[in-house]
Design a protein that fits this description.
By secondary structure, this protein is α/β, with parallel strands linked by helices. It contains 16 helices and 5 strands. It has 2 domains: about 5-165, 3-Layer(aba) Sandwich (Rossmann fold); about 210-304. Bound molecules: zinc ion. It catalyses: DNA(n) + a 2'-deoxyribonucleoside 5'-triphosphate = DNA(n+1) + diphosphate.
């Protein structure tokens, strides 16, 4: 449970979109569906928590004292509905359960707020089922769709949502948020490109994922050298698979950073890596050895 405005003070770059949302509300221009878009790790979750609290709270600002705020704090407000991916997809079952829940009335007699996290992971069937809810707005129901890759959403979904954009914070804001731990990162533009904004970078530092990723990087180098995928790379869980491949992508850019000719020769192999990243972000249960080996082979064939 995120308390604000305290949280906004920690992530001051969210103040701009927050004020934009408040202004829309003051002007009576809030749509029933909001697409909250921005890179991973930039605090979309913090902002959506603030918006959700403002929509449910009796005084409209997250007073902290009304019964809605109390229920939110306790972590079980009955008119807050959270949906997110199961594995790497938001499946139709989750949307069907949502629709049947919305057919009832609000437990607390106020608004109902649905938060759909990582909306880009809605699979085709789920997205089509959600479309009907977006087309026929219900009184007092608000949908907040959090999304870091809006281009992956159906245009029929995005066209029915208002947008609110969270931008990547500045270098100063990022360093202030991460604090002293940012010193541990070293080449932080690399980490920002790979992981996303300050929240993602801080989480990676706190959970020691930096060391894990550094190890992946070494294994990719070894694989590129030998032509055979290091088995440890393919042993990761399917939720980390796309990130593992992203590490390869940035490794290739690193190798080609001062070799435009090399980059040109490997353009199509690098494109294949990008396509597989996007594909793996939405798939589970894939034979990663085969996928990774195919890419390593494609990259090495180009080198000959
Ligand atoms: Zn309140």
């Amino acid at each position: 449970m995120i308390k604000l405005p305290h949280r906004l003070e920690q992530a001051p770059w969210l103040t701009t979109p927050w004020h934009e949302w408040l202004q829309r509300r003051q002007l009576g221009r809030l749509g029933h569906a909001l697409l909250l878009q921005g890179p991973d790790g930039c605090g979309k979750e913090i902002l959506s928590e603030q918006i959700l609290t403002a929509l449910l709270c009796d005084s409209g600002d997250g007073c902290g004292f009304c019964r809605h705020c109390q229920l939110l704090k306790a972590g079980h407000h009955p008119d807050r509905i959270d949906i997110g991916p199961d594995g790497n997809q938001i499946k139709i079952e989750a949307i069907r359960a949502l629709i049947s829940r919305l057919e009832g009335t609000a437990h607390q007699g106020g608004a109902r707020v649905v938060v759909i996290d990582q909306a880009e992971k809605l699979n085709g069937a789920a997205a089509n089922a959600l479309l009907k809810t977006l087309e026929e707005p219900m009184d007092g129901v608000y949908l907040l769709l959090l999304c870091s890759a809006p281009e992956r959403l159906l245009p029929t979904i995005t066209s029915r949502c208002q947008r609110l954009v969270v931008a990547m914070p500045t270098l100063t804001q990022t360093n202030e948020f991460i604090g002293e731990a940012s010193l541990k990162l070293g080449n932080w533009p690399y980490w920002q490109a790979l992981l996303g904004g300050p929240l993602a970078m801080k989480a990676a530092i706190d959970s020691d994922n930096i060391a894990t990723i550094t190890q992946w990087r070494k294994w990719w180098r070894a694989s590129l050298k030998s032509g055979l995928v290091e088995p440890q790379l393919a042993a990761v869980d399917s939720e980390s698979a796309a990130l593992v491949l992203k590490v390869l992508y940035y490794e290739l850019l690193f190798i080609g950073r001062s070799r435009p000719q090399w980059l040109a020769e490997h353009y199509s192999a690098i494109q294949q890596v990008i396509e597989k990243i996007s594909w793996l972000e939405r798939q589970s249960g894939i034979n990663l050895v085969a996928v990774f080996q195919q890419l390593i082979t494609a990259i090495r064939q180009k080198a000959q």
